């Protein structure tokens, strides 16, 4: 089995579903389920807390007992079951509960995929950037197709699209896979608490983690309110998907070339550029509240997200042993992509109700400290 091709295919299929969840889920709760922006923001914010707890504790612990393939299989089946449970409910309380459950299982697929990729990079020599670029391509395809589907059938089609994508992930679990992802962890690797202690004893890890928490958390308003914001400034639903895809197109270009062009760059340098690009992105959206500047700012996603994510993956694959990768991925997904984003989602929702564009400017409360932290610590911790 060709590990590079297998990983590329799995990233592609997973990000088809991520291209539904990330840009459209808040909009689906508002438009299809009848919630207010504040109610949907509250649900998604607490959903991120559930996601954070799951990816920090449940996912790394499961990875100590089951192979990567089995972990992904279990998470996929559970996610499918919860999407069915969504169908009859429309009240705030019931949607809150179901979303908590959904955020406990579905987003954990992201660190599961990245952890699998990290193992393949270490043991099979897989080119991470190349495989991850297929994930970004899947996201592009998903957002484009769903923008057309939503434009024709309405926001209620978002849930059905998610179900279809999860069935594709499930189908992939029954195809041949590289031997390394089928290996069950040995008993010696199952002391989760000791494993976590060892991870935190790597001196540079807490610093790198804090930096990526700040940079990735700053995407909270973009992930949750970009779809609604574009509607508010008069963009037709048919074109929103195309506009959102601009960001991921630049992300694809970055991931395709990253392993070749940036081999000599240290993670700290990559993170510094990412934080600066992120700051510029949110300032542009606030300063020029029109669709053309928003489209221009989308090119900076290659820096604000792509470069920061790649820097963290490079850091853990170069500095951590195999048994620590799932721990690091779980913490990264929990804190950087979930808990930090959850807090900023609540703040962004409050700012959005005042002035929509202010929700984006508010994100520099994270990116500016990230820049300062990198400058102060990069030489001492040598990351």
Q: Remind me, CATH topology? A: Growth Hormone, Chain: A
Strand pairing plus helix content: what structural class?
mainly alpha
Mean pLDDT metric: 86
**Globular, elongated, flat, extended or rod-shaped: what is the shape?**
globular
Which homologous superfamily in CATH is the superfamily?
Answer: MFS general substrate transporter like domains
Poorly predicted tracts of residues: none
Got a strand count?
0
Largest sheet: none
Proportion of beta-strand residues: under 5%
CATH class: Mainly Alpha
What's the number of helices?
17
Distance between the termini: 34 Å
Cα gyration radius (Å):
19 Å
Report on the architecture of this protein.
The chain is mainly alpha-helical and 383 residues long. It has a single domain (3-381), classed as Growth Hormone, Chain: A (Up-down Bundle), CATH 1.20.1250.20. It has 17 helices and no strands. The two termini are 34 Å apart.
